[in-house]
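User: I'm curious whether this sequence folds into something compact or stays loose and floppy. Could you predict its structure so I can see for myself?
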Amino acid sequence: MFHNDMIKIFIITLFGFTSYGVNANETIHTAEYLKLRSEVYKQVNMPYRECMDKVGSELYKKAYDNCKKEGKGKDVGGGCAHIASYATAIRENEPNPYEHCNTLKATRENFISSLKKAAKSKGIRKYKK
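Assistant: Here's the prediction. I'll summarize afterward.
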């Protein structure tokens, strides 16, 4: 019981600090800069997200097709869709099929550099006057 209470306190404290940071950014940064920051973040992380989604879809499709072929989903609620979802999420004692996607993950430095370039090229100010 004590452990669960400590986790709750930690989570509430964490949300308190993170929400303060968001509000502070909204008061000092221009709306255009905040919008651009969101767009650039999506752009620099898109290759990684697309890789992760593609691998997940392929794993699911393979597990689903194998289930159908072997006739395993007949006596399971949700059928092969349920089995394939579980097989995609739980991959014990197997190599990580997502590992190669990590090479596409944007670094903080890459994100900041891309944001600065985009803001400069579009003439967007970072801070309010």
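Summary: The helical segments are 2-28, 31-70, 79-89, 108-122. The CA atoms of residues 84 and 90 lie 10 Å apart.
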